[in-house]
Amino acid sequence: MAIDLYMNFFGFRERPFTLLPDPDFLYWSGAHRKAYTILEYGIATRAPLTVVTGEIGVGKTTLLQYLLSSVDPDIRIGLISNAQGERGDLLRWVLYALDIRADPDADYVSMFQQFQDFVITEYAQGRYVVLVIDEAQNLSIQTLEELRMLTNINANKDELLQLILVGQPELRRMIQDPRLEQFAQRIAAAYHLERLDETATRAYIRHRLQHVDGSGEEFTEAAIAAVHAETRGTPRLINKLCDLALVYAASAEERRVDLPIIREILSDGVFVGPFTQGALNPGGVMLLCDPVPSEKNEAAE
Question: Where along the sequence do coiled-coil regions lie (predicted)?
Fold first, then answer.
């Protein structure tokens, strides 16, 4: 297969650019380090609400996976991915995430009492409960308010229940809705994870190559610049394009990925990038994304 071909050709022990969130490959850009610090801060201070947002594919889920693998044993974490539904449905998601068995016919009051008893029991045994909601932008205003009501379990000076919400930029806009004023007031910290700039993209690509026993020099500077321009620094898209580039390079028996290989991939139409209006780069290759602003205009990491 083509993948096996390039792994053998370059001497990699595994694929350097997969699409699955793998904490072993985590690259600590300045932005990713800050986002993770906010997550740690939320847990360490027992903040009632912590929020991390970012565009699709910037590495939010990878950060969550790393967090889940490194929390203290006195913290009971429940992960909810892509929860949807009306009132009561969320509570069932919560119980399921914490491995709490609920009667299928139980009403909302019964489920809430079961959840509250669980949180209090965990606290009595020296453990804190943290609920992590991934893809939280899919929740409705009413469901977010229901989440806030769950934190009413907290009493006195101790926070028995903490919530961490991770989602796309829509989540950030949602929590600015006037109807969620009480919700917003309980957010201890919020961070928006930006895409990688060109310098971070270069370091990201080299990091992943070296992680699988590559030299880190399998991509030329010109190729890396083209990858950044085409992907706008989105890690998931960088992985897609770099993976294809290694396949093309190995099939042509080229030891380095250079700009002509990136151009060939784009010309063949096998890479699907950001769905925005196309623009011609200086080399004449049609890009799927808008022109990338100059570095002096980009937000600092």
Answer: none
